[in-house]
Amino acid sequence: MLASFFKSQAQIILQFDTIDVCNVFREYPKPMSDQHLTDIEFSSLALDARLLAALDKLNFKHCTPIQAESLPLLLKGIDVSGQAQTGTGKTMAFLLACAQKLLLADQVKATPGKPRALILAPTRELALQIHTDASALLIDIPLKLGICYGGKAYEQQKRQFDEGVDILIGTPGRLIDFFKQKFFNLKSVEVLILDEADRMFDMGFIQDVRFMLRRLSEPEKRLNMLYSATMAHKVLELAYEHMNEPQLIQIQSDTPAVERITQTVYHPSNQEKIPLLIGLIKQLKPERSIIFANTKHATIRIWEYLQGNGLEAAVISGDIQQSKRESLLKKFHQGEYSILVATDVASRGLHIPDVTHVFNYDLPDQGEDYVHRIGRTARAGNSGAAISFACEDYAMNLMDIEHYIKTSLPTMPISNELVETPLPPVRMKKSKPPQQAKDGKSTPKGRSPQRRRSNNTNRSKPPKS
User: Which of 405, 436, 460 is the last residue of a domain?
Assistant: First the structure.
């Protein structure tokens, strides 16, 4: 049944560079290079005049391929399952279709507890990026946005539902938390959007996603969109189960490799990785770079050595508080830091312009993740460089990566001039998380729940520094 369903769908295959520019650059809006656009103008689509005015302010005239193929269908009320690589304009496609649907409806004011559109994202970073994109697009349009994600601002996020939201953006866990507390229901949802659906599976969120989708109204009563970088069978099955006969649109290229990115690989020993990384950075002097590692421990170690060697960097790690992570990302986005150290949390969804170099300090396990990582550079028609380390621990991943990108990465020799003798690292200070009382509320930093409820002055002496 599933096979016959998808066989009947119109499958649109377009030859396109897999890593391109997203149609929104937040605080740095730029027109997209002509070679990445189609001849279809937004003004030729049946969009609300307010949306066209917003696009004009953002200086977006022509559609990308995924927008050109999906928007005409969505504006007719036809569900879409879209496959396209990161940075191809998927976010703008579903935001325009969503806003158009809500603006055409009779209801003009948000009702408390009854969101009209639901956008599910796998990570808080992607949810925040979508919210920022939507804010830029809808700045002069009377549609109220809400966002829910774990890690911070619990009470603030709860208060969003007092006045109601039109478009609710969030991650599954926090949304389910609020849903079970009955801050909102899902029967009023007119538009459903699943962004990075394949990532939902990879991160183990699919049961939470299904929980929410089963509490929506029937698929025929809403407009449904699913966007994913890969369209595996499990993603197609999800679309079949919770959408209304979606049209399948695929934007792909013959090879996932990006022609504008110069890709090279070094083969250092584990002990040579830090000296080689520091040597390359000092020799190449990248204007803005991202260093990817596979573990939180590795990102912290890299950051500590960079700091110790006079290279200021921001780091995205699970050990960093969410508010600080957002602040560091903003500073990197604005150019205050020229180096970002991160795990794969930054390889999808974060659209940061003008990244000149990507360093794969650790090779990823999958070729697809390699493509997402290097796609942080060479955006907006620019060129970029991707430098990978095939070390003792991860060299075996190189074969799968080269098979996926259908080309061999040029091997570069490690000369004595490249290997820098590093200065000692600067250790990152680790702050202790607030302790939890029995009621689940945080207690003041450094005090236990028992001590908070007692006037006992017999306190232990502080540890020696």
Answer: 405
Count Cβ atoms below 10 Å from residue 465 Cβ, excluding itself: 3
Q: Examine residue 87 and state whether it is found in any structural domain, yes or no.
A: yes
Domain holding 310, by residue range, is 261-405
Q: Nearest 5°: CA angle at 82, between 131 and 80?
A: 90
Going by C-alpha positions, the residue among 316, 318, 383, 325 that lies closest to residue 347 is 316
Cα–Cα–Cα angle for 110, 115, 117, rounded to 5 degrees: 110
Identify each DSSP E strand in 216-310 by its residue range.
223-228, 247-252, 261-266, 289-292
Query: Structurally, how many domains does the chain consist of?
Result: 2
The pLDDT confidence band at residue 151, using thresholds 50, 70 and 90, is: confident
Residues 36 and 140 in one domain: yes
Pair 371, 404: CB distance under 8 Å: yes
d(CA 115, CA 237): 26
| pLDDT digit string, tens, across residues 22-62 | 333 233 334 444 546 889 999 999 999 999 999 999 999 99
Are residues 142 and 12 part of one domain? yes
- DSSP 3-state assignment of 187? coil
Residues near 361 by beta carbon (within 8 Å), at least 6 away in sequence: 273, 277, 291, 292, 293, 298, 302, 389
> Do 200 and 289 fall into the same domain?
no
For the segment 242-254, what is each residue's pLDDT rounded down to a tens digit? Answer: 999 999 998 865 4
The reported pTM is 0.66
Close Cβ partners of 96 (under 8 Å, ≥ 6 residues apart): 47, 51, 55, 67, 71, 137
